[in-house]
Amino acid sequence: LELLWADEFQSETLDRSKWNVLNEWTGSVCRGNELGQLHCNLDHPRNLQLRDGCLAIAATRETSYSAAIDMKYSAAMITTAENWTYGRFEIRAALPKGKMLRTAVYLVPEKEEEHWPRNGQIDILTNVQKPKLGNGAHYTGNYHGSGLDFVTGEANLQDFHTYAVQWNQTLIQWFFNETNRGLDFNIDRKLD
């Protein structure tokens, strides 16, 4: 496979030519309220920090803004400025540990329709503070995929691991540390 895009986070600030940062806090509205989240995604240095070649996305307790929109926490959500259909999508990450944290890395369409997940979504990983990883393919109002309780064995998810999805016209495959997790999603078979 040919490498088309990468970011090793070697600069002092996030490269805005490569990344879009969601800022949900607009006046007195936070999209997180609509989604039932306890946080609002902000474009703020306390939520996005570059340290030692790593991007840290941090959840923080809010004090000055919470009264206006009733959100007690903030976090961050970033998307690439580039878009691709098909390929291998890989992230090396150490997952956070903490009460109520839900880490999610996924592929979403450039333009989303009003009702999720009509345009589709492929979860590279989700984690809810257990030694398990979730994955899936979402489309046309349905959730499809297997392995929501993929157990990582003895792996400590707070250590760095490589998470990947390989996607082509007929198949989606999930990988953990270069090993196929055995959770293949045959697109032709599922869309019939």
Structural summary, described in words:
This protein is mainly beta. The protein folds into two domains: 7-82, no CATH class; 84-191, Jelly Rolls (Sandwich), CATH 2.60.120.200. The protein has three helices and 17 strands. It has helices spanning 31-35, 66-69, 187-191, and strands spanning 19-21, 39-41, 48-51, 54-57, 60-61, 73-75, 78-80, 87-93, 103-107, 121-127, 132-139, 142-144, 150-151, 161-167, 171-176, 179-180, 185-186. The strands form five sheets. Strands 8, 14, 15, 16 and 17 form a five-stranded antiparallel sheet that branches. Strands 9, 10, 11, 12 and 13 form a five-stranded antiparallel sheet that branches. It has a three-stranded mixed sheet with strand order 2-6-5. The longest helix has 5 residues, at 31-35. The chain is globular, with a radius of gyration of 17 Å.
Describe the secondary-structure layout.
Layout: E1 19-21, H1 31-35, E2 39-41, E3 48-51, E4 54-57, E5 60-61, H2 66-69, E6 73-75, E7 78-80, E8 87-93, E9 103-107, E10 121-127, E11 132-139, E12 142-144, E13 150-151, E14 161-167, E15 171-176, E16 179-180, E17 185-186, H3 187-191
Parallel strand pairs: 2-6
Antiparallel strand pairs: 1-7, 3-4, 5-6, 8-14, 9-10, 10-11, 11-12, 11-13, 14-15, 15-16, 15-17
Mean pLDDT: 80
DSSP E strands, number? 17
CATH topology of the largest domain: Jelly Rolls
Distance between the termini: 29 Å
What's the story with the biggest beta sheet?
5 strands, antiparallel
Count the DSSP helices: 3
- Please give the CATH architecture of the largest domain: Sandwich
Structural class by SSE content: mainly beta
- Tell me, what is the CATH class of the largest domain? Mainly Beta
| Oligomer status | single chain
- What share of the residues does DSSP label as strand, in percent? 35-45%
What is the domain total for the residues? 2
Low-pLDDT segments, ≥5 res: none
Order of helices and strands: EHEEEEHEEEEEEEEEEEEH
